[in-house]
Amino acid sequence: MSIFHKLKEHFSDVLYIFRQELMQVIKDEGVLMFLVVVPLGYPLLYSWIYNNETLHETPVVVVDQSHSALSRQFINDCNASPDVDIKYYAEDLDEARSLVSRQLVRGIYLIPTDFSERVSRGEQGVVSVYCDMSLMMAYKAVYQTAMVEAGRLSAGINIKKAGNYTKREDAISAQPLAVDDVAMFNPSGGYGSCVLPAVLMLILQQALALGIGMAAGTARERHRNGQLIPADDPHYRGAYRIVWGKALCYGMIGAVAAAYLSMAVPAMWSFPQMATGWTLFWMLLPYTLASVFFGLTVSCLIRYRENVMLLMVFVSVPLLFLTGVSWPESSIPGAWQGVSWLFPSTFGVRAFIRVNSMGASVSQILPEIRFLWIQAAVYLGMACLVYRHQFFVSKAAKPSAD
Amino acid sequence: MRYLTQILDIALRELGILWKNRIYGFCMIVFPLVLVLFFTTMLDDGVALDLPVGVVDQDNSATSRGLIRNLDAMQSSRVVYRFANITEARNAMQEGKVYAYLYIPEGTASKLMAGRQPKISYYYTMTCMTAGSMAMKDMKTIGSLGSAAVGQATLSAKGATPAQIKAALQPVTIDAHMIANPQGSYNYSLTTVFVPGILMLFMALLSAYALGMEMKFDTGKEWLARADGNIVVAILGKYLVHALIFLLVLFLYQWYIFDVLHFPRLGGVWSIVRLNLLQVAGGLGFGIFAFGLMPSLRMSMSISSLWSVLSISMCGSAFPVAGMDAPLQAMSWLFPLRHYWMIYQATVLNGFPVIDVWFHLVALVAFTLLPWFVLRKVKNAMLNYVYIP
Q: Which ipTM value was assigned to this complex?
């Protein structure tokens, strides 16, 4: 047989397996759910959940024991701020506490009896702030608003005392060194703009791994002896053509899902999008490939298809953590950093956030792209190895089945 | 009495199943323990420490070096890069090398001396919110320290005492009480929702899985026969073992975080036990209900897993439910984890009376009773359905 003829045969087998695999995806509702419904629907649901981005008007109760002009000014200033809403006035701390207990407010501002007198006497007037720590976002709103308003009140008092002549002098005496703080790449500090890009990329990897794993599980259940590879089909006669055929099928689905997740979803919900088309392409190409080969490798290791669900679903939350989106990368312990290198999502998410939210160029995410290519190559090698093993297992099982 | 012996008989049978199929051992004991270790070691510091930040110092004065030293000494910031200009600094940020950078323009020190209000700028990325907000907090402190230094020098030259200086610089100040989490630790707030959350995911998934496997291997008839066809007895016997194992794992986890790691809590031991009982019952109930709705192994498991993963966002511990759109706020009632978390933060973390969150308690009881509606369907599935791969 000539080399040309062999190649042709090889390609026709690859295409046959591609077709078989695609048919199976369409026919099996479990697989269809994870490869089509999840990538389509889940991102929209998550976008909706985080769409409001920030928390405003956190309810707070005030215990004003000072009843002075100064205490009222502080309360009014806090109420006027965007993040805090003074919803209740209480007579004492116990009454205020019962409001927290009933989940009606998230914090207490206590202004003591001697508040105004102390300030007039030239001592420090202290406002006690009690925060409910169950919600970090609410705690920050309650605490920071009090901080900022106390600072503003202090500045006002100091300006009065200074006896300046001009407005400029007032500004300088209040703040001799001006500080300009600029939040970049997510200026409003929105929760959705921060977390969603990571969730989108994670969905791609998880959906592919779940879909491929379930399809492999179904194949095992259909075939004789629970083998992954049908021993009696002449087209399935080499491990490499099986891997290529399957990769072609899932790569195609992954490519569509990747385009949808990286471009359509953020545009639909107007989340930040700073990436250019080609940068996205060079980042998503190795990520999709690495995810597909990762899925193929994992699918071989799992016997029942339900087990892949138990495994992949449970790792989603830890995987999101390992990407460094909710807990900074520099604070992740070394051992877990090592574990995170096993998963394409770690580098895929990091690269996507830089490209999509920070407008990085290809050269700026080069380390991540390199890692993704290495992962794609390693998982391709492993997929070939495990499929070769499966291939021999099913070959060995064939005579006994007959 | 007859029912009790039947329940015991089925429970022993279930114990045999759990022993033989290793996936149960992994999902009920090994994975949860790994998770506890994962979150507690990952978030061991509580807050992000020593985040890498950079500086662009074009002033090169004693004042600017003082500012940089102060920044480096802050809890959450560590100055690791010195850039020549803003462009270099921004590039480093886009490459993920720094989370923030401080820009001190030329002439800062001389303007400060002359009272011409120089301006320094601080840039931080909010693509990782924990890092961004910590960096911002440090910088705010540095800025006000820089301003205060000027007044402090003048006042101490005039002979004011430290207390007088403090009062003169900041006549109004706040005294923060961070109830039940004085360090503002993320370990205390995240571990306590993710670990129980993923455990509830396993409860729902495995209870659907257990029923599905009876159908897959056609052992459902034998299971029902042991209960004389009484589905309530059959279910009670089957899930007794599941509930006990999950409770044991939960107690182990609580013991580890509260007694070994000393997580703060204001609620008593009884509040924890009560919550765990409700949690296990609700979680298992949800899984059985999911199977009853769609008596197929893969569909019921898919539904339970998709729902449970969503519940980690919908419980509102990170992004509050009050901040979501109204339809989502209503939907949050359909997630058992939401009720778990509400009861947890009120009774265990803050030590408030359970009566103030009674509606969440009722909701968890309702999740426990949900399988009631599908009992006949489950029985029918066991007796008549054929498993199709």
A: 0.89
